[in-house]
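Notes to self after the Tuesday call (sharing in case useful).
The group wants a holo model before anyone commits to mutagenesis around the pocket. I volunteered. Ligand is zinc ion. Logging inputs and output together so the record is complete.
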Amino acid sequence: MEMNIYGYKCKRCGHVQYPYRTICCNCHENDHNEFDIVPLAKNGKLLTYTLLYNPPADFELVYLALGIVELEDGHRITGQLQIKQPCVGMKVTGKVELVRKDEYNKYYGMVFYEA
Ligand SMILES: [Zn+2]
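Result:
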């Protein structure tokens, strides 16, 4: 089963926002339950990135590459990068994958690869 990151589409004006906010940032008219959940795009452009050399121990990585990607639908999302030599402006494609686990929980997030 393919997993997605979801945005929240206002039932009054149709604006999609991510991450979740209780009030639509476009029309300011709706209540917290007036959203439809819609999958966000997975392809986009790398806007910026950083390498974290001291991630929490349960990441089990030498370093963690994090990027901010502008998706094709205009949303900006933070995700891990599985790209050997990231380059600002490069095209990337995302998959929702297991990014971290501890004794009790598994955490999923967007992981970007070179497109
Ligand atoms: Zn709205």
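Two things stood out.
Residues 10, 12-13, 15, 24, 26-27, 29-30 surround zinc ion (CB under 6 Å).
Residues 59 and 71 are 25 Å apart (CA to CA).
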